[in-house]
Amino acid sequence: MKILLLGKNGQVGWQLQRALAPLGEIVALERKDAGGDLADPQGLAAAVRAAKPQVIVNAAAYTAVDKAESESQLARLINTEAPAALAREAAASGALLVHYSTDYVFDGSGSAPWQESDATGPLNVYGATKLAGEQAIAASGCAHLTFRTSWVYAAHGDNFIKTMLRLAATRERLTVIDDQKGAPTGAELIADVTAHAISQTLQQPAKAGLYHLTAAGEASWFDYAQYVLALARQARPQGVKTAAGGVQPIASSQYPAAARRPLNSRLDTRRLQAAFGLQMPPWQQGVTRVLREILESKGIA
Ligand SMILES: NC(=O)C1=CN([C@@H]2O[C@H](COP(=O)(O)OP(=O)(O)OC[C@H]3O[C@@H](n4cnc5c(N)ncnc54)[C@H](OP(=O)(O)O)[C@@H]3O)[C@@H](O)[C@H]2O)C=CC1
Ligand SMILES: Cc1cn([C@H]2C[C@H](O)[C@@H](COP(=O)(O)OP(=O)(O)O[C@H]3O[C@@H](C)C(=O)[C@@H](O)[C@H]3O)O2)c(=O)[nH]c1=O
Ligand SMILES: [Mg+2]
């Protein structure tokens, strides 16, 4: 079986290179490879036609949430037009398309975990372009697995864990938002679940569809920051500089940003767990493992 992977060097793409390897031959592309640039949907479509994959996995996306507010056309090209082009190719060839979306498709109201069938209402450009991407895939009629995930981190790539370690080393005091709640989710978990779901869906096509895929439990960004810094301090008290004044919780209103973000980013993963016979691990599990890996790579654990 041949799998075409787009965005091989992102957090999730990197882990997919590992997790998908046992399933077949992987053709993995990044932006600079021929046909690997999602800002060129025609070139992308041509790459799919040339590779003739049975499965297309799109791990590439425009993920700079604040910057997207002023680069909406580019964000739309990458997050909406490119997935739409992949979906057309998948529909025409019969390939299974695997794609990722986000908690930011929701407006963040209430406190109940969002279900796949709930009404969407993105608050920012990134969320709107990701939602339009999902919708284009669903409308194309291609066989697809769309996974909405949240707050992704990994040892490879840039993310909130690394930002907190960096800021803690340079600032007296960290202030972190305490009224946005969600689930930090490891790229490793996302990739492992993806591989499992692809295998099952190829056997049972009725399993195709839209799924929420996050770790279990919930946290605010403040809870998450505190957890990371406490663990970092514990792992190597001398090696990790942590802000002397500690981490202070703040409200979203006290953190001006170009893009608005949802307060309630909780995603209900019961559909995924039931369809694929899975139990999601608590978010702390993956964060602990990846933090150790990050500290080891810095030579401080
Ligand atoms: N990060 C997060 O917190 C969340 C992510 N998601 C979704 O999960 C998926 C994976 O995200 P994640 O791995 O975290 O993202 P990253 O930001 O880590 O990686 C995104 C990848 O996309 C690539 N990319 C960007 N623009 C293009 C382009 N024009 N052509 C080809 N490749 C491009 C980047 O390459 P380059 O380095 O060259 O720019 C990078 O390798 C995405 O669909 C994202 O929307 C969902 C929820 C949360
Ligand atoms: C750096 C920093 C951030 N924050 C806040 C801002 C923001 O609300 C939150 C997280 O910061 P980030 O920059 O990681 O936020 P952001 O890039 O919006 O993260 C999102 O990325 C996209 C791709 C997704 O799909 C989402 O699931 C989510 O992971 O923490 C603080 O409160 N204090 C700080 O010092
Ligand atoms: Mg970000």
TrEMBL record:
<dbReference type="GO" id="GO:0005829">
    <property type="term" value="C:cytosol"/>
</dbReference>
<dbReference type="InterPro" id="IPR036291">
    <property type="entry name" value="NAD(P)-bd_dom_sf"/>
</dbReference>
<dbReference type="InterPro" id="IPR029903">
    <property type="entry name" value="RmlD-like-bd"/>
</dbReference>
<keyword id="KW-0560">Oxidoreductase</keyword>
<keyword id="KW-0521">NADP</keyword>
<feature type="domain" description="RmlD-like substrate binding">
    <location>
        <begin position="1"/>
        <end position="294"/>
    </location>
</feature>
<dbReference type="InterPro" id="IPR005913">
    <property type="entry name" value="dTDP_dehydrorham_reduct"/>
</dbReference>
<protein>
    <recommendedName>
        <fullName>dTDP-4-dehydrorhamnose reductase</fullName>
        <ecNumber>1.1.1.133</ecNumber>
    </recommendedName>
</protein>
<comment type="similarity">
    <text>Belongs to the dTDP-4-dehydrorhamnose reductase family.</text>
</comment>
<comment type="pathway">
    <text>Carbohydrate biosynthesis; dTDP-L-rhamnose biosynthesis.</text>
</comment>
<comment type="function">
    <text>Catalyzes the reduction of dTDP-6-deoxy-L-lyxo-4-hexulose to yield dTDP-L-rhamnose.</text>
</comment>
<dbReference type="GO" id="GO:0008831">
    <property type="term" value="F:dTDP-4-dehydrorhamnose reductase activity"/>
</dbReference>
<dbReference type="Pfam" id="PF04321">
    <property type="entry name" value="RmlD_sub_bind"/>
</dbReference>
<dbReference type="GO" id="GO:0019305">
    <property type="term" value="P:dTDP-rhamnose biosynthetic process"/>
</dbReference>
